[in-house]
Amino acid sequence: MINLVTHLSQTSGIVRVRVGRKRTIVIPKKIAETLGIDEGTILEMSIIGDSLVLKPKPSAIDLALRGKKFAKITLEELERISVERQGEYIRK
Q1: In terms of DSSP bridges, do strands 15-17 and 42-48 run parallel, antiparallel, or are they unpaired?
Q2: Which one of 21, 28, 53, 59 is most buried, by most CB atoms within 10 A?
Q3: Cα separation of 56 and 65, whole Å?
Q4: Which helix (H) or strand (E) holds 12?
Q5: What is the pLDDT of residue 64?
Q6: Mind listing the domains of the chain with CATH numbers?
């Protein structure tokens, strides 16, 4: 792979990356860390005007670990509900 050169403009905050072989790009470490992008992260790619936009799409595990929490449940409640649902499937 071609060595990529990155440059962060101090005035505009724009990061420039060079496209490598097979049109690969490398996301600078600070940007990847800020957005929680790791190896295996799914990115949504779109074109808006003449710009390429990449948005990380969190996996179910990412959402479970880092996502907004909207309900509280104890492990005991989760186990009880799980056993009830399993019983429903067995009875069918």
Answers
A1: unpaired
A2: 28
A3: 15
A4: none
A5: 78
A6: 6-91 (2.10.260.10)
